[in-house]
## 1
Amino acid sequence: ETKELPYREEGADDLLNNHTIEWGSVEEVVAKSEIIFVPIQTPHLPKYEGTTRIPDERSDFDYTWLKSGIKELSNEINKQGKDKIVIIISTVLPGTIRRDIKPLLNKHVKLCYNPFFIAMGTTIRDFISPEFVLFGVDDESAYETAKYFYSTIHTKPVYKCSIEEAEMIKVTYNTFITMKVCLANTVMELSHKLENINCDNVMRGLFLSNERLISTKYLIGGMGDGGGCHPRDNIALSWLSNKLDLSFDWYDNLMKCREYQTEWLSDLIINHKKDLPIFILGKTFKKETNLVVGSPSILLKNILTEKNISVEMYDPWIDDTQPPLDRPSLFFIGTNHDIFAEYKFPVGSVVIDPWRYIKNQEGVDLISVGDSTK
């Protein structure tokens, strides 16, 4: 009997009619398998699929089927009484597996989270030759076995992290694609409404920047961007967007994001300041320079000043005096100058580090912003 998929999937038809896969009940799958992959859907309602206008309300994915399937599988594994590796590949929001899935498991289930980065239409190719394999690890021995399994298919890198980190990577990967598409389409609309610009030529110019743009640079959490170009260029382009009646002011949105994130850091300082004096270490817009134009550290100080919070600043590339390291204070690392990692902070101090490079010191309350593993 010839089998057909209801949609086009590259290379699937030949595999579908020539495979040696056995189908069976959950009982049979558990009995015959060492590794069990769980690809159960976590759907959204049709109104969230992007074919209609975005509704006002928001909701999580629907985990009904995933929880039901995992519960049935876990019960069968427990019934048979042998350890089995269970690898979930479903898309979920960060925290879901710990909250909703792990309580359904028993001691015989050795869990990993291995979301796939596959696109409809090229699923087979993307599985056989992925960019990388992502593993959120809950059980080390399960991870080692699964890693060996993948080594029999390809030699692509395997990225090991916590389950929560893997959950975050999966959805962030998808959002990154949306971000790129939105930027390209903003350039397309601007090019259409201006003169003598082909948007493809613009983007092909950006393709050549394989060090700063198409790279790992600027993808590490910290302070906002700055310098003589970034904030001012976005503000000017926001003005142009309004002049041309652009469908969406992408540039204004970027600047609001930068400002709101800096305000969040100001609230973090206020929440931890106790009765300590506040010092922002670093005035410059980036490390190892003495330029302060567009500095997010100075923006932070100005936001705190608006809230009637007294703040002092120090920068080794600008100031001759030294910061007061002889009394407890709240120190915020505004610029990640290397020298700050060498400081011995006074006992009783609070150090807030959005760069996560300051080491723990006895008697100092270190807050590594963005690292909830500590």
## 2
Amino acid sequence: ATVRLTDTATWTQLTLISIAAVVTLIARRGIGNRRRGVEAGVLAVVMLVALVGNALLNEHIVKPLFGIPRPNIVELAEAGALGEELPNAEAFYASGDKEARRRILRERLPELETPELSDLVRAHWIHETGYSFPSGHTTAATTFATLLAALGFLWLSGWRRRVTTWVVPAWAVAIAYTRPLLEVHTAADVIVGTLAGICWGVLAVAAVNWAVEHLAPID
């Protein structure tokens, strides 16, 4: 259940959630078709830039800059589970790109007895071979939640406002909680990821409001 929950912040599922969010926001009553179309276009562009932009920045610049290994990799190396040729986390990360590191884990993890891993957790560990700091899942979820909660509060009413302002942020908090639980991030990774996501989300809200009001102001 933990892996399935954390996977809702991956590109495949978050894309579908974002589409549902856009539809929810623009389907409200009281706006014309032109305004609706402008909002849909602006939301699509801003979400794409905010979510894809921060993911690329995080994965290719920020994480390599700090170069902090994931806690599960540190644990595996210290237990000797990565083999004598990889005595520490630094050696593991120096062994090649993400796919090369995944191959190592595919070979080693099925042989492990301690820690005992479920098939889903093992597959998640094999996939997550990038650096740790900050948490990309948390940043993406918090960015999305900040944007949707703010726009939901401003634009929606009734149950739609309650879902966007309460349920979606609660989902983002749950995503953040799963990362240390799965041992692929530390608390510091999650805290910084949350702060980064809030900043990205606030900028995204400002961009959406500015663009919509300039392109299709309400008379």
## 3
Amino acid sequence: MAISPMALDSLDLARWQFGITTVYHFILVPLTIGLSPLVALMETLWRRTGNKQWLVATKFFGKILLINFALGVATGIVQEFQFGMNWSEYSRFVGNIFGAPLAFEALLAFFMESVFLGLWIFGWDRLSPRLHNLCMWAVAAGTNFSAFFILTANSWMQHPVGAVVNPRTGRAELDGVSGFLKLLSNEMVWATVLHVIASALLVAGAVIMGVSVWWMTKAARAEQDFEARELWRRVTRFGAIVMVAAGLVTAGSGHMQGQLVAEYQPAKMAAAEGLCHSEAGAPFTVAAFGDCKNEDDMVRFISVPGIYSFMATNDFDAKLTGLKEAGDTYAERYGTTDTRGNAVDYSPNVMVNFWSFRLMIGLGMTSMAIGLLALWLTRGNRVVTSPRLGAAALWTMWLPFIACTFGWIFTEMGRQPWLVAGVMPTQAGISPTVSAGEVLLSLIVYTLLYGLLAVIEVGLFFHYTAKGLPKVAEPKVSEDPDAPMSFAY
């Protein structure tokens, strides 16, 4: 039986592999980024108020953080393997640029969070409460530094600045110290970092709120009024407040980021809005089906004139670049064929970008609305008692995870057909010596491995969530300098 060449195309398989592993890895990342400062804040509230319920919450959600952190590290390592395995030409081209921020990420951020997380786990009875709390704040700083340096590298792929291409080696190189400073001050970096960290806090707030509402309903039905009211209601409102505040910042930073994308990657935003041709007062379309290649077949539902122009420029009448005109500009600048003589299509997939953009926004806004609903239901010292609401809270907490996933699908798929926007086509980054069969084998192995890790992650999460509260005693610092550290969990 003949196998279709498309089914064994090494480029497509390598993209699928990187997409699958990246999406799984990033499901874990925002929870770590968002939960670490919130656990640190819970411990701070315990120290400041003396309320033991905050200590209980700190240890309960600290355990969830540890599970997520461990799986996040394991899945993140695979990303680096793929740079050398499937994308060696890409690594060769960007190595001099990516080396600096990724070195900072590994040597500063990752070691910082790892070392201080270890001290936090083992130091409950060896460190003073203040010093112990500072360890978790250091973990939070490390996770956010890590996000900053990784997003610095990714933002360079979206909007390359501070680099020159060496004609002798064919590699991109930093343009001296000023180039590195431009890399760090890239407009895309700061908008992206703010958007990602805010969305991570939305994710973490949703987990805290969802789990707390579920336990609140159980405690209320078991007539454990103190636990339901003093612990779970308190933590529910804590998570809900974070969700609302983070949701507002996510929306605002997303608006800023979208305007930069419209400026630097007009084809991506044109695809996200299904804008086939340049238009003044460009509309926002609620739903659409079809493709700009067959524009007559494009079906649109509810288009509001001027809204997309306002979103992109703060001007309802601004003229925005359409997908066809953006493609023509790229074709004029970079040619109509690749190095193999194949025709190049500079248009990203319209439907993937259109719907991932809307699902990202829609699910994010829905999550923020759920946070507002939780605050309303727990107003005036009320507790939630309905088991249906408890179950709904536990399941809807996954919505911001899905929203973040669609956000990254939009970010990466919208950049196509470029690995580095306007500089390096995707096909130019694939390893020339890796066969389609080898990529397919590693794709299968990684997918099965990640599937197993997903079962472990979800199983541990629900196991420790359902297990309930740990037995917590006020930590007493040992005065014996030779006493061994004890494992907190």
